[in-house]
Amino acid sequence: MSVIDRARASHQKLTAIRRDIHAHPELAFAEHRTAALVADHLQALGIETHRGIGRTGVVGVIRRGKGLRAIGLRADMDALPIQERNDFAHRSRHAGCMHACGHDGHTTMLLGAAELLAASDDFDGTVYLIFQPAEEGEGGARAMIEDGLFERFPMEAVFGMHNWPGMALGRFAVHAGPVMASADRFDIDIVGHGGHAAMPHLGRDPVAAGAALVQAVQTIVARTLDPLDAAVVSVTQFHAGDAYNVIPERAQLSGTVRAFSTSVQDCVERRLGELTAGIAAAFGVHIELSYRRGYPPTINSVAEAALCAAVARRVAGEEAVDTAARASMGAEDFAYFLQKKPGCYVWIGNGPGEGGCTLHNPAYDFNDEAIPLGVSYWVELVREILGRAPR
Q1: End residue of a domain, out of 246, 263, 295
Q2: Domain end position, chosen among 295, 329, 348
Q3: Which of 154, 156, 293, 367 is most enclosed, with most CB atoms within 10 A?
Q4: Is 90 labeled as ligand-binding?
């Protein structure tokens, strides 16, 4: 029986697992039920299982033969603080929390692969099954690394997969190089001199300074960066005042910066500092800038991307793999893994229509029809890298 046929044979069971996880979502570093479900499932398959890696992470270990090579396969487990709007039977049972990014599907696909790999002897080496907590903004990948992931489970490369709404079911996208952007944050505190709105000449208006700064920030991408260097600089918050006839004492601005390289991040951060200093001088106000680096860019290594594209073609068909898809300005903490190890993060189509709405949307649901394809991709990837049986 082929890998895809074996994956399809488990489809109903895996769908039930996925929907159970969806119905019981847990936020970052609180994935206690999910982690227990994962660990119990791995142990029931006879897989060596390690709990509590990076607080709530789980790592399964499958060894075959005498080979010294080892790779890691990663799935994320956490949900989002969103009130679900769906009304199907497996909707979230926890108010204000839902799987709106498909991590329930990612976890399930890796569990399905674990089952097939546990029953397989056609590879020589070690597979580490990495079930990661806290991808949604809390840096669970970094927590696992700091907890000794790569020292305790030495691997030559690490691989990830994420569903992609809007891409047809049955398709993959594989990027050689940047696939997701960095996610930096900034806060700007503007302190002026408050006063009567009818006598603005007696004050120093932080609102006017803030408005000028919002406009000036838009020139960073348009007039500072090389046009071929992609970046996004967005002011997403502007808070000031609480009365119609009062010029407030201060204003606060916040926003995000997205980029595909450290050099662009450095340029944007430097230019933000220059602009805030200039606006402060021009308006006679005091401005404090706090710039915080978040997730780094997710950069696939070229060799591993080529390998993953070949595996995806074997699973989905020659014409079903897009190696020219545009990268996303979204961010992903799998980037921390790729800073330490070669690897590749691929997208698997979630399809349009039911289950195909955008990520982080209250009507989102993972498309269960993608499960056998994802399971097959993981298994074939292991066979490709660690395989010893003839094909």
Answers
A1: 295
A2: 295
A3: 367
A4: no
